[in-house]
Specification:
669 residues, alpha/beta, TIM Barrel, Methane Monooxygenase Hydroxylase, Chain G, domain 1, eight-stranded parallel beta barrel, seven-stranded mixed β-sheet, 22 strands, globular
Amino acid sequence: MKKLALGAGEPFAWRSWGEGFVNVNDAGHLEVITDPATRHTVDLHELVTLLQPRGVRPPVLVRFPQLIDRQLATLHRAFRTATRTFNYRGAYTCAYPLKVNSRRATVARICETGRRYGVGLEVGTKAELCIALSMLGNSRGPIICNGYKDTAYIELAAAASEAGYNVVVVFERPREYELIGELRAKGLPCPRLGARVKLNASGMGRWEESSGDLSKFGLTASDLLDATRLLKECKLLDRLRLLHFHLGSQITNIRNFKQALQEALRFYVELKELGVPLDTLDVGGGLGVDYDGSNSSADSSVNYNVQEYANDIIYTTKEVLDRARIAEPEIITEAGRFLVTHHAALLVDPLEQPRTTPKPGRPRARASNVDAVNELDDMVVEINSKNWREYLHDAYQKKDEMLSAFSLGFLSLKQRAQAESAFSRIVELASRFSRHGRFDGADKAALERIAARLHAFNFSIFRSLPDSWVLDMLFPIMPTCRLKEKPAVKAILADLTCDSDGVINKFSHPAEPRSTFELHGMPWDDAYTLAILFLGAYQEALSSDHNLFGRPAEVTVETGADGAVQVLDVRDPDTCADMLTRWGFSELVQSHVPGELRAVPDPARADSPPARLERIMTRVLTSGTYLDRHTSETAKAVPGEADTSMAEPRGTRVRTASGTKQARSASGS
């Protein structure tokens, strides 16, 4: 076993992207830091081990709601520091966008923790507005109504405003302020209004078209003038209080944001001079996350921190408005990714142990009448640190000759297998020798890619990290154990789906993205898993049922005041029956998973092929959609046993099989 000195050449570079969020402990296990002040942590390797007796096995999505609390505190502390530093007299408020993660538990945590900060919610649809009204309750946090709107949307917002909610309806297109005029004509109350301006400035990267001329939303300068004219005619100009712009999600370069902010502030000044009583500036979302640790303007990173972001907003706003002698407005940000990204991680287990190619000795006799096969065998023995480049090039040539010989019938299947094994070993050795000499970086990466092996893990990219598939987004990935050992296997990660896109072949690293991932060599114990981190934003909302892989098991974990790990909630994964029902095959499910037990079959027919098929079909339908490397008998036998090593869930365990839910009482920690 080769020991790895942490801090020097770490293969996973976790200190760069995970500072303050993850740690590697003395046992070489990956920990999530739930409380930086007390250094309370959750050991992910131990968590996997301790969940197994409860029948909870990977893939499992683990949530750490305390990280949401921490991010809310960090964001508001940054703006509090900025307002004091620059003597800014306006207020600051955060409105969490529901589209980022609309799970009830997540939204409830945002609202509960955010109550002390006056946090509001940003909505873009009628359904999201209903959620906001139910979750904010008597809080005075703002509800920012974005998105395309119809009469029903606006009437609901108006009724909520009349009932005492702090609602702001933001115009996204000219037709919407016409609807406001029609609302007034009917004698209905008018809520506070806002206008989203379409800026010329744009972001960069994947979401640069969220602003600029090609933006889907927003009003042009002409539209804004028309809006003020119409509102004045309807005697509603006093309701227009907010100006809004949005540069896009994951703003990677702070300079682009400052340019957009300065342009938006010019709109603010001009509208104020036209008599519009604006008092609030909503700068939208986009506060990014450094997924790869490069602290750069790369697509999966940011070249600023949250304090720089707050400072730039406050300083720029104060400078522009002081020069125009206009009162400093309340600032609203719509930070979503920053708040919830870090609080979720997916733990996945491998489908098989990695295999290494043994180094063969020189054969006593020629193995084949094809020279290329014999020469590959010789090169395996003779390759070294001085000749590996030459031998690697020769090996490719000999491999082509070998394949041609096989196609023409001069080579047996057994001989081809031997030649392929020799070629793989040559590439593996060449990759190893290349690490110790001067070698072009691009060529070295290509060599590592060739030497890498495909390893399948028990999850679906389309279900659990769709942005990796659609947007080529990078997420931090690490083993949960053996992190003080040097990894020995170059890998490309595959999921379970029958889709060639279900592969991860680009991995985050602060220097530059890597084309391979490093795994530890054999043996892997039963709890050897990978943690795919920072999945709390957008991934569940955008997830797909591709190949009918459903939601994995979920657990919610916190640390108590004494640092003890508490499992607050366990939710079983979707079953095959759940997925089939969702896609319209409820009759199939009902025919095999009846609500009541059927009569005991005739003993003479109990072991007949139809009866056996029926039993197996029922078992499959009521089990999860992911692969289980353990027998179902074992999984069912263990959960009832007592486990005193970790607190029992204090919430509810929800079982989804056949659409039923079984509540389980919780014991104390």
